[in-house]
Structure formats: C-alpha cells, structure tokens
Design brief:
This protein folds into three domains: about 70 residues, no CATH class; about 70 residues; about 35 residues, no CATH class. It is about 75% helix and about 5% strand. It has eight helices and two strands. Strands 1-2 form a two-stranded antiparallel ribbon. A hairpin with a 2-residue loop joins β1 and β2. The chain is extended and about 60 Å long.
Length: about 200
C-alpha cells in the first residue's frame, strides 16, 4: 500500500478555519452585512441627517440605522443553515461561470489580430447574448441551490409527452418569433425610411 503524504500546512489551516466556522458563519455574515449595508446606504431608505463633512453641511444617510438593520439581517441569515448552504453553493457555481467566461474571452483574445484593443462594444449582438446567457446561468444556479431545478427536471422528464410541456414549448417559440419579427434592425432601417 502506498504511503500517503502528510497534508500540507495550508490544507491543515483551511481545515482549522472550517472547524472554527469561518466558512459557515463569519464569511456569510460579512457578505450579507456588506451587501445589505451598501444597498441601504445607496437607497437612503431610512432618510438622511445633516452632518458636517469637510466643513460643509451635507445630507448623509443614517449610518447607525443602516448598520443595525444590516447587522440583524446578517445574523438572521447566519442563523439559518439552509440559507448559508444556498449562499455557499450559489457563490461557488457563479465563480465557475465567471471562470468559464474568462476562459472564453482568453480564447477570443488569442484569435484577435492585436492591431487594436478588443472590445465587445463593437459586437453588440455578442454582448447581449452573453448577458442573457449569464443571467440564465445564474437563475439556473440559484434554482439548483434551492432544489427547484431537480423538481422541474423530473417533472419535465415524467411529463414530456404531456400538454403542459408542449404548451410551454409553444409559448417559448411564439415569444422568440415575436421578438425576432419586431426586433429593430438598427440604423439601416432608419436610412431607408428617410430616403
């Protein structure tokens, strides 16, 4: 039987942090607190108060209320192990989608001539397609994390010949056809109408 090498010091420290609760308590708490606090600061839900900033009287968000609300919401999320598991799974899979996108962009960049900087701004159709595909991927990742994707898959598999699935397919085809027919073709159609 081959001798197993001892685990590395870094792997041991990650195991220690896992047992300590870093990945299940502290990091999800910090993530939820930061996101909720940033949203409350940006939207100014609790209103503003007058304060001197650099000698000027300005309206600033109520930081104490925003911080307390974000703190409580982060604790509620951490208290639910199901929500923490959903956050961990969703973020891990979203990073995989990001890595896949970066790999694709590296391949596109390798095939680019290099005479000018590559930008998706020139290819509006590609940019829109990527945005739609990434949005669908994130929705699918979230549905998988909460367990609804398995249910939908098995329902579709069991009722493939049923009227519900064929109706959904027909509605999707009709929506795609309507979008394709009514899609504005750009500046070419404007030039023809002006002439």
């Amino acid at each position: 039987m081959p001798v197993q090498p001892p685990p590395s010091a870094l792997a041991g420290s990650l195991g220690f942090f896992d047992r300590l609760g870093l990945f299940d308590v502290l990091l999800p708490f910090l993530l939820v607190f930061t996101v909720v606090y940033a949203i409350l600061e940006k939207t100014k839900v609790y209103g503003t108060e007058k304060a001197k900033v650099d000698g000027k009287l300005m309206d600033i968000p109520r930081k104490n209320l925003n911080a307390m609300t974000a703190f409580v919401m982060a604790f509620f999320v951490v208290a639910s192990s199901q929500l923490v598991a959903i956050i961990n799974q969703t973020l891990a899979h979203t990073v995989l989608v990001l890595i896949l996108l970066l790999c694709f962009m590296m391949l596109v960049g390798a095939m680019h001539t290099g005479k000018e900087e590559f930008s998706l701004e020139k290819y509006k159709g590609w940019k829109t397609t990527f945005m739609i595909l990434i949005f669908i991927a994130i929705i699918m990742i979230f549905l998988n994390a909460i367990g609804w994707l398995d249910w939908a898959y098995w329902y579709l598999l069991g009722n493939w010949n049923g009227t519900v699935v064929s109706s959904i397919g027909l509605v999707v085809i009709i929506i795609v056809a309507i979008v394709w027919v009514t899609h504005d073709r750009g500046s070419g159609s404007e030039d023809k109408s002006e002439a």
